[in-house]
Protein: Aminopeptidase N
Amino acid sequence: MLTNLSCKNTKNDAPDKGVSFGLNEYRKEMIDSIQYAIELEIPAQKSQPTQGKQLITFNLKSLDSALVLDFNTDSAHIHSVKAEGKEIAYEFVNEHIVINKDKLIKGKNQVEIVFTAGDLSLNRNEEYLYTLFVPDRASTCFPLFDQPNLKASYTLTLKTPKTWEAVSNGILKEKTSGADQNIYQFEKTKPISSYLFAFAAGKFFKTEKTVGNRAMTMYYRETDSVKVKRNSDEVFNLHAKSLAWLENYTAIKYPFGKFDFVLIPSFQYGGMEHPGSIFYNESSLFLDENAPVNRKLARASVIAHESAHMWFGDLVTMDWFSDVWLKEVFANFMAAKIVQPSFPEINFELRFLLAHYPGAYEVDRSSGTNPILQKLGNLKNAGTLYGGIIYQKAPIIMRQLEKKIGENMMRESLREYLKSFSFGNAKWDDLIGIIDKKSPEDITTWSNVWVKTPGMPEYEFVGDKDEILIQQKKDSLSDRIWQQPVLTYWKEMFAQGSVSINLDNKPQSVRKPDLPAMVFPNSNGQGYGYFKMDSVSEDYFLKNYNSKKDTMLTDPVFRGAMLVNIWEGFLRGDGATPVNFAKTLLDILPKENNALISDNLLGDIQTTWWTFLTESERNQYQQNAEKILWTLLETTPDKGMKNSYFRAFRNISMTEDGLGKLESLWNEKLKVKDLILSEDDKISLAYELVLKGRGDGKAIFEKQLSDTKNPDRKSKMKFVIPALSPEQNIRDAFFESLKKPENREHEAWVLEALGYLHHPLRAKNSTKYLKTSLDLLQEVQLTGDIFFPQRWLGATFSGHSDQEAADIANTFLKENPEYPYYLKNKILQSTDMLDRAVKLKK
Structure:
């Protein structure tokens, strides 16, 4: 089977759409020394096409097959193809330019192509554009060999409207200006993979700064100069600290010379690691005044994450996208280390626990889970590999590995890995090979379970009054043993203690008690899996929450770990009823004084409130919930938490009093000490008031549009408003418009609109959109960016929690037995909470 796959498309077969694994392997063997000289002319009007020409230089080792270039757009976009200066014939087959071998020579070749650039990955707006080529989208813009293991140098020339700035990976060599046009010529880049080539152009402001002898330039669109000034120094300093830390850790100087970054409104990701030109979501870096600590940590983490990619992903790149997790895990793993010195007041064991475990469990508990290392037959499906397993579970497993082999050996192994494969490509097994040579541990066996198989272990306590035992429940894969150490805290009437156990699939003793004991599994939060708690231990923890009478209860890591255990138990039906669980969470929230845990509790409260409670149950406890949140909002001395409580209050408020407070905050008749509302907050308040029928919706939106000064936020608001209309026919028309790909280009706008379209208050009227949304999923995957299919599903099903919605999803999968497994998994992941809500409500 593998032989057939690797041979396919290597001789005379027509190439499949996308880049098959076989085509990837063949080109990797036959082609090297690639250079692209690209010239693009960007028109002032978004509706006009971008014209381009390029010279591709490469070395061809053999002439036994036609040359296949990737160009994922219409054949009419190709205007001419020349080889060695002479126009040649070619075929256009399945989004590929195919050049017969008799038009080529063994050795150095030059192919010149004149073309119209495709728009799919250009992210064009009226005043700016930016590229996003990950994982295989460069070929939607211009012809090339679009696979990660054919690294190349890029020389770019951009012709832009006169008032536009431009930035790319390379150093700006020269800028010239004409009557109505700027010409930007960028120097040749170091060898990089095609998905890392990037440029942005448009009406951007820019700030230049040198920190520690490192010159950096920041491009941005934000018009609030006070906000920019408040955040700029910290943004520059966090970059400088990250790069300095990475240079020290890797013993390799920053590899790409120039260092710029671009802040883009409603950018699809938190950031994208283009060497020399990182792109960020503008709101992730320009924070509102009194931002909560979680937002500040998130900003530091995304900067550290993208900076780490300069080494892990850019300098050394995965050979094939099945190993895409490798670059992401090291970026996340390094980011956690990097941000720690900048936040000495933060408990980073707790931060790691809450930032990774709940998100990983969300996928791993579902029937659509996947292993960390996934198979990939065609690069066109590479975007579906991304998700919680890569970003949340993989760093947990990498921390396990570091604890097994030690920090020094991990660092030595990574330095050897980076040095051995600099400006090249590598696989996970290449790193494992380096570690296995150094470590006495059996890393390969450990990796085969944790990295190459899906799911999570489940543990339970067994025994009687004579002895308490912990054991791994029988696994879905026979004889699979999840090797890991787990710390368990136990407590009796007159004694307490903890025991660390290296778990396997055999029952192991926790304690031989003198009296019946309570046990608190995974008490330091470092074990991975579902640790079922008994009701006596859980009740003790909740009733004595954060009590100073028990030193363990004052440990925030212990509290965080137990809350994660209890949340997992609730979702699996092993805990309280939804209404009792919601009451419990609201009862312990005022007792919590750690901002990280408080934010986590607020998230669980809001999910429980809208997903697991019936309307009558919400109505019964509505007034009390609002009172608790408003009291905390008014009385907390933590300015950051004040914003968190405000957003939770805004989310759940439904009473006359609660909505009156929201309206008074929005029109500024009510002020709360130290609560500073940003333009985004005001827009969200307007949305909530209209959604919940408070006041004249048309008048509210007219006022908010008039008050909104930032043009990008105003454009987004105009897009979202129809999804909030009280008129069903307007909402229907809006959903109908999303069937056209051009109306889904601004993915962040679409997702926000879908969230309101499917809000629990509108769920009964939006159920009819679910089947069509599922029907569109394959097209959404092909036309959207890597996270969009999962987020499309998440926003679509987020407000639904009844049997009818669950039946629609289940029927769709039953009626489509040949549906692509990678998208089937996304559906199963996105409807897991829906299925659990249906069961728990029963």
